[in-house]
Amino acid sequence: MVTVQEVARLPAARGSEGSYILGVKVAVHCQREKPILKVEPRRFALQTEGGLPPIRARFSGSQEPAMPSRYLRKGDAVSGWLTFDVPNGAGALLLISELTQPPAKLPLPAPTGH
């Protein structure tokens, strides 16, 4: 199960031109027996309004603690920050978690300023 704990716009981090860096702190709790669950940043993305392709989490996080790559067994949990390069004016955002099939889509609240 994936839970969004915090969403923050990260003004100190640099995005590409015409974008900003968004930090999303998530917690992952493993509830399945087998197989063990592999949690890693590349299994998360953002979906924006307007049909743009999903935005993949960046591997170089600018918010600590970053989401680690880790295997989880039933009852294990991990949390950390994911960072995304979001186009200005992207509108409402959904966090896509590819830890389940079909992927889970979680609406994100408006970010706080960090």
Features:
mainly beta, single chain, 114 residues
Please provide a written account of the structure.
This protein is mainly β. The protein has no helices and ten strands. It has strands at 2-9, 19-29, 37-39, 44-48, 55-56, 70-72, 77-87, 93-97, 104-107, 112-113. A four-stranded mixed β-sheet has the order 7-2-1-10, with no helix packed on it. A four-stranded antiparallel β-sheet has the order 5-4-8-9, with no helix packed on it. The chain has a two-stranded antiparallel sheet with strand order 3-6. Strand 8 and strand 9 form a beta hairpin. It is globular and about 45 Å long.
How is the biggest beta sheet arranged?
Answer: 4 strands, mixed
Helix/strand-derived category reads mainly beta
The helix tally amounts to 0
Oligomer: single chain
Quantity of strands, as a count: 10
- The largest beta-sheet arranges its strands as 7-2-1-10
Helicity, as a percent range: under 10%
Strand residues, percent? over 45%
Helices and strands, in order, run as EEEEEEEEEE
Mean pLDDT: 88
Overall spatial form: globular
Uncertain segments are none
The end-to-end span amounts to 26 Å
Alpha-carbon Rg, integer: 14 Å
Write the layout of secondary structure elements.
Layout: E1 2-9, E2 19-29, E3 37-39, E4 44-48, E5 55-56, E6 70-72, E7 77-87, E8 93-97, E9 104-107, E10 112-113
Parallel strand pairs: 1-10
Antiparallel strand pairs: 1-2, 2-7, 3-6, 4-5, 4-8, 8-9
Please give a quick description of this structure.
It contains no helices and 10 strands. By secondary structure, it is mainly β.
